[in-house]
Inverse folding.
């Protein structure tokens, strides 16, 4: 079949890219070559609009063993192990087919982890939906949660947390990002850049079918067409996952890696753009070529054409390069696990990718020349934060109790137990804190440290990000570091799941640039370099006014290290009679609760965007150090970050989220501040701690030593009354009912 | 001689590592047993069928696993003195193998349930629960979609409802969490909760150790006498 511009355009290439391709090849591409290039140059595979910004991310540190660019990032774990971790998105497939879309999202990220040689040990999911009162959004939520639960539970990997938020900007473009963490022996670490010429190329795992063709180029990298005619066509681009097959493939791969580590030269998972992307990646990174015989690809459907074999995104497959003559040893292990293992070609010193099908040479691509699309001339303008023209006169809150209950029932704050209960969070016998905890905490012994543990926490507030992306990134990083410190963890690394709108809209990239700038400040302050990540673009909602970009949503997930997990304390209150204190990094000089969830909901539109103080990294670090010290000394009975909804919400949640609800008695009558600021104001650098009354002196000493501010908020009671004198009071059962109303069990 | 304990592993099992981790605390000869290798009478004194999704739960949970070579002589192996604990998917396999009567249906919520639940010890059953343990309450994790146990009255006569939930978790008959049946010189104990995930000081959850402590004590006493 002849190729021409029309075909190139229909496959998603631009006119410039078509011309560039012809000039690189000095001929017309074959039909198969064009199909391959179209998918390799798609946004999803090439990161052509975001790469130049991503390069600026701080990714250096003594602990970093592998930075961005491989299947997952790696940080050192003790003397001889490493942790592999990454977050990945599966947004568009999940909108088209929520169950399979979310399930294969879990499958994809797990493959990234075990491709490195790591056994996955924890999962988390970060979700965004539109208005949950819409029937379709409820359907999507149910589908996504069941999909994640189905795949993760069957794989036997505990789901330790995540985030669920809603905003109308996701009405036509939900976000499904999944984080995974794995642990490996440093001497058995595998990459895709270590193949040698004269070795054999094998496909492992499931046979190839027709599913997921064009998933990367036309589903993940294009604007959404919501017209019904396209729905069916898009549905066949969603892959179908089988967690049982993935479990077998995982066990087989890990066994090969452990038994045959010298014979296995390179390995790459077959995700987006399947065989095309995995062969190109290994060839490019290892600086060599490949000769592939497509007839040898194991198939599960008859009559598959060459381009279908090249583009299929059938799940649960791996591409491996193994030493010549050793294929049989690998085949034996893969067959034991019921996996297909077929040799499809060999590596060559000449750096071209040659493929033949039914005896005919179809593909002959010079790898390095066609690996990347022509550079886009993207200009990024510095993001300017809009400041309100004048200060508004806004009345103080009146119905405090009603407002408190209202906030507790919002999806972002309410108990997610109804969702989390569907995820197995205890398999692996290592979960110290699961969903609903301050952070996901896992018992992960190190050499000479039997009770060491890893913790992770993710955060993002897209509403702030839309207005002030710089501030949003600062707040997310400090929140992650603070939550980790609450469980006694010191930050060691970070991964980011970037979800943005259309990169051709100048605002989108300028917001992203601001986010990167702030992330770099924070990552350096906490020594948590970014070692992996994922970018999803073209997240838009169609409306009558045209396509509207989603708010910039960058899930920041920070990883930390704990010396002794036995010292981790819960975030719910534990014993009546105990004192509750606020520990603050630096009290802001604010008069009104700007930016708070309360202001966003109850003030006239846009008035909430006031003068929010920027983050003081030094003070935040001091608070983090103090929390880790308190953890080591076992000073607290419980400890929690003050986040969305402010102090009143943090206290109410701590009272009602434990096994039995506590009453609370606090006297705040000495404060001169506005009631809404006291109760619902939100700013960085605050934690609520519960201590035994006799620990007061030690607590105050700690606060002084780290130059923090402390304030006694009240004490826990058995009265069943939640009272913040003189602001509000009521039965704690009402708060519990409100908190549990959003996602009923 | 050391007591010989084994944890069976099927393709799709995911609780075998947890069980091995929990049992490694005891000075016994502990092995992971692959599903394709037959088990002979006298090979093991204690055998765990772990949780997970054996054979992907294709057809029905446990339906394919019962045909595994390892389970071929299971009835005889048990009668001759092996004590089998089936946990979660292991419970489902024991049902499919007709070693336990009744069936497990989907939870009444129709959803997967992952939670920590209070369980009650009702009867002394060898080697897992001693007389003095009866009445005790254990906090154990559950993680299942098909945990709603139903059994007819006739079938109940040979069964001991050794473990029950403190609250109605999934509409199991009589809130049954685990059933026990003695067969010849051995026994089967099938339960939905996961004691092997709650056997560690580091996790602050070690109620599950009670069963393994008791079994170790019982079997080593028997071994020395």
């Amino acid at each position: 079949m002849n190729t021409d511009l029309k075909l190139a355009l229909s496959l998603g290439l631009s006119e410039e890219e078509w011309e560039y391709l012809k000039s690189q090849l000095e001929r017309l591409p074959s039909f198969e070559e064009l199909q391959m290039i179209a998918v390799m140059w798609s946004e999803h595979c090439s990161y052509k609009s975001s790469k130049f910004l991503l390069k600026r991310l701080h990714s250096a540190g003594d602990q970093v063993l592998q930075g961005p660019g491989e299947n997952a990032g790696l940080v050192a774990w003790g003397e001889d192990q490493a942790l592999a971790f990454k977050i990945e998105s599966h947004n568009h497939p999940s909108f088209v087919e929520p169950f399979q879309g979310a399930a294969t999202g879990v499958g994809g990220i797990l493959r990234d982890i075990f491709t490195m040689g790591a056994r996955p040990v924890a999962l988390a999911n970060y979700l965004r939906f539109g208005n949950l009162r819409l029937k379709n959004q409820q359907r999507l939520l149910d589908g996504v949660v069941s999909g994640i639960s189905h795949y993760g539970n069957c794989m036997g990997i505990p789901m330790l947390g995540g985030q669920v938020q809603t905003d109308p900007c996701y009405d036509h473009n939900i976000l499904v990002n999944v984080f995974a963490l794995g642990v490996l022996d440093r001497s058995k670490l595998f990459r895709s850049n270590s193949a040698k010429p004269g070795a054999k190329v094998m496909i492992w795992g499931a046979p190839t079918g027709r599913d997921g063709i064009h998933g990367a180029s036309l589903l993940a990298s294009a604007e959404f067409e919501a017209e019904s005619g396209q729905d069916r066509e898009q549905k066949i681009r969603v892959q179908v996952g089988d967690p049982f097959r993935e479990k077998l493939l995982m066990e087989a791969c890990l066994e090969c890696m452990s038994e045959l580590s010298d014979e296995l030269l390179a390995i790459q998972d077959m995700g987006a753009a399947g065989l095309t992307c995995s062969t190109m990646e290994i060839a490019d990174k290892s600086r060599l070529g490949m000769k592939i015989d497509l007839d040898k690809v194991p198939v599960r459907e008859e009559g598959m054409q060459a381009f279908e074999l090249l583009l299929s995104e059938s799940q649960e497959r791996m591409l491996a390069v193994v030493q010549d003559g050793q294929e049989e040893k690998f085949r034996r292990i893969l067959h034991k696990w019921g996996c297909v293992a077929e040799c499809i070609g060999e590596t060559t010193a000449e750096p071209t990718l040659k493929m033949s099908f039914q005896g005919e040479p179809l593909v002959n691509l010079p790898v390095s020349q066609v690996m990347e699309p022509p550079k886009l001339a993207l200009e990024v303008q510095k993001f300017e934060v809009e400041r309100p023209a004048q200060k508004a006169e806004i009345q103080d809150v009146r119905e405090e109790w009603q407002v408190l209950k209202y906030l507790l029932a919002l999806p972002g704050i309410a108990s997610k137990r109804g969702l989390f209960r569907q995820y197995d969070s205890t398999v692996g016998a290592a979960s110290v804190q699961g969903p609903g905890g301050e952070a996901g905490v896992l018992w992960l012994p190190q050499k000479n440290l039997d009770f060491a543990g890893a913790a992770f926490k993710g955060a993002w507030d897209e509403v702030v990000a839309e207005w002030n992306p710089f501030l949003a990134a600062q707040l997310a990083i400090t929140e992650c570091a603070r939550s980790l410190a609450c469980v006694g963890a010191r930050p060691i690394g970070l991964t980011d799941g970037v979800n943005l709108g259309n990169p051709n809209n100048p605002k989108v990239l300028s917001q992203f640039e601001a986010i990167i700038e702030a992330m770099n400040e924070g990552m350096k302050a906490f020594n948590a370099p970014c070692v992996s990540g994922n970018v999803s673009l073209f997240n838009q909602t169609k409306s009558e006014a045209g396509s509207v970009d989603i708010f910039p949503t960058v899930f920041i997930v920070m990883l930390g290290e704990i010396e002794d997990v036995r010292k981790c304390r819960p975030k719910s209150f534990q014993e009546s009679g105990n004192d509750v204190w606020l520990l603050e990094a630096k009290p802001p000089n604010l008069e009104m609760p700007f930016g708070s969830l309360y202001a966003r909901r109850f003030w006239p539109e846009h008035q909430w965007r006031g003068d929010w103080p920027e983050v003081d990294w030094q003070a935040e670090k001091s608070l983090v150090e103090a929390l880790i010290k308190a953890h080591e000394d076992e000073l607290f009975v419980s400890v929690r970050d003050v986040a969305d909804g402010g102090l009143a919400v943090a206290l109410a949640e701590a009272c009602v989220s434990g096994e039995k609800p506590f009453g609370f008695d606090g006297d705040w009558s000495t404060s001169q501040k506005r009631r809404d600021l006291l109760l619902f104001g939100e700013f960085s650098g605050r934690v609520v701690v519960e201590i035994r009354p006799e620990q007061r002196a030690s607590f105050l000493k700690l606060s002084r030593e780290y130059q923090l501010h402390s304030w006694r908020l009240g004490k826990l009671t058995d009265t069943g009354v939640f009272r913040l004198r003189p602001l509000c009071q009521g039965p704690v059962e009402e708060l519990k009912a409100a908190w549990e109303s959003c996602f009923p069990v | 001689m050391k007591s010989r304990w084994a944890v069976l592993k099927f393709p799709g099992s995911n609780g075998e590592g947890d069980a091995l981790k929990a049992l490694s605390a005891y000075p016994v000869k502990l092995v992971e047993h692959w599903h394709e290798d037959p088990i002979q009478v006298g090979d093991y004194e204690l055998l765990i069928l772990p949780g997970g999704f054996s054979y992907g739960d294709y057809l029905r949970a446990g339906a394919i696993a019962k045909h595994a070579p390892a389970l071929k002589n299971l009835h005889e192996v048990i009668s001759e003195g092996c004590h089998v604990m089936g946990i979660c998917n292991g419970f489902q396999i024991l049902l499919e193998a007709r070693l336990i009567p009744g069936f497990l249906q989907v939870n009444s919520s129709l959803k997967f349930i992952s939670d920590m639940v209070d369980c009650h010890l009702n009867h002394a059953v060898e080697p897992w629960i001693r007389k003095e343990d009866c009445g005790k309450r254990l906090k154990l994790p559950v993680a299942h979609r098909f945990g709603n146990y139903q059994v007819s009255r006739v079938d109940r006569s040979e069964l001991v409802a050794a473990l029950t939930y403190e609250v109605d978790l999934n509409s199991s008959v009589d809130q049954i969490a685990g059933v026990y049946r003695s067969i010849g010189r051995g026994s089967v104990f099938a339960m939905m909760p996961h004691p092997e995930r709650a056997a560690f000081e580091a996790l602050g959850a070690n109620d599950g150790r009670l069963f393994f402590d008791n079994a170790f004590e019982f079997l080593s006493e028997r071994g020395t006498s």
Observations:
- Residues 88 and 192 of chain B are 4 Å apart (CA to CA).
- Chain B touches chain A at residues 11-12, 14-15, 17-18, 21-22, 51-53, 55-58, 109, 111-116, 141, 143, 194, 196-204 (CB under 8 Å).
- The domain at 4-224 of chain B is CATH 3.40.50.880 (Rossmann fold).
